Amino acid sequence: MDITVKAAALLDKCGDVVLSSVSENGFPRPCVLAKIKSEGIHKLWFSTGLKGTKTIHFLKNPKAGVCFYSGGDGVTLTGKVTVRTDAATRAALWVDWFINHFPGGVDDPNYCVLEFEAEEATFWIDHEFLTLKGDQLRFPAR
Predict the structure, then answer these.
(1) Whole-angstrom Cα distance, residue 75 to residue 130?
(2) Are the C-beta atoms of 41 and 137 separated by less than 8 Å?
(3) Three-state SS for 13?
(4) Residue 83 in this model has a pLDDT that exceeds 90
(5) Collapsing DSSP states into helix, strand and coil, what is residue 116?
(6) Predicted pLDDT of residue 136
(7) Are 33 and 7 in contact (CB under 8 A)?
(8) For the chain, what are the domain ranges?
(9) In angstroms, how far apart are the furthest CA atoms of the chain?
(10) pLDDT digits over 121-135, tens only?
(11) In the predicted model, what is the mean pLDDT of residues 18-39?
(12) Domain 3-136 listed as CATH 2.60.120.260
């Protein structure tokens, strides 16, 4: 089985992942977040507050890192985050438990979606170490 397929299966098992932004001082700032949705390992979506520290970081600097693991296997992704505030994205990715964080529901002005797109991945899966970049992440590696 291709390593990107294995990584996507690993990500499916992980409800929470670590998302890192770059602080105003140039330091990484990792946060544990619930993954809302993923498309393979190429794209991931998270919900958060528009006024939150990580969102402010991403609005200034979209560079990001994502890390997830299970057992002895792990994946580190680097790429960019887009802060999505459009009604269609917010509605499409709304989950009922968000109401605990956004009492105004899907129209809460503080609710936004972070869309992460990977540009590079480093894998440690089944004792195999590999780094892939760009389009290699979208399709099974050859």
Answers:
(1) 10
(2) yes
(3) helix
(4) yes
(5) strand
(6) 80
(7) no
(8) 3-136
(9) 47
(10) 999 999 999 999 988
(11) 96
(12) no
